[in-house]
């Protein structure tokens, strides 16, 4: 998979890809992530990428032309499955969307900034709009990093233990059950006895029960979705 990210603050996108699982995925050639500085596609002498809103109003708007130039350049090199615009008014991101995106070969992610992009970019260039939640971030970069993390870890071979992504919270519509490691007792806080029983059927049943109880208690919305 190849992900091209277009940003006006490319520095913000360095560290998320520079450690741990994402770094290993890139080094292992399982995913390519290319960050593009929108300013490199500015068309005037001042390297402008934003301008005042027509009709008045506070805040700058990202101009269509630099974005179009950057996207056209990329599209001339390969076909893209999706051109995603990160914006708080996009469709809410969830595990289902992450799963779908992980199957694509090439995607572009455009990070919004200031007041956002000229509507014509959304009407004519963008194919999907994503929000990561009901709050406002200063820009789309951190949201793009969240989406990339959720997607890249699903690519086969990225996680050491192949089954591990499948047992994540949400992957079966349930939150994950409680987990424990050594020591068996700490300050008198004991690990449930059943986990030492060696009875893997009983352990699996207990995990399922706990996952359901946790989902009902914490996310009744997810539980109802699951029942529907
Ligand atoms: Cl994708 N962008 C911004 N700026 N804020 C957000 C968001 C995206 N998702 C939630 N809040």
Describe the structure.
The protein has two domains: 2-152, SPOUT methyltransferase, trefoil knot domain (Alpha/beta knot), CATH 3.40.1280; 167-227, tRNA(m1g37)methyltransferase, domain 2 (Trp Operon Repressor, Chain A), CATH 1.10.1270. 33% of the residues lie in helices and 19% in strands. The protein contains seven helices and nine strands. It has helices at 20-27, 64-77, 95-102, 119-124, 141-152, 200-218, 220-227; strands at 2-7, 32-37, 50-52, 60-62, 82-92, 106-111, 128-131, 185-186, 189-190. The strands form three sheets. Strands 2-1-6-5-7 form a five-stranded parallel sheet. A two-stranded antiparallel sheet has the order 3-4. The radius of gyration is 22 Å and the shape is elongated. 6-chloroguanine (6GU) is lined by residues 86-88, 112, 130-133, 135-137, 139-140, 143.
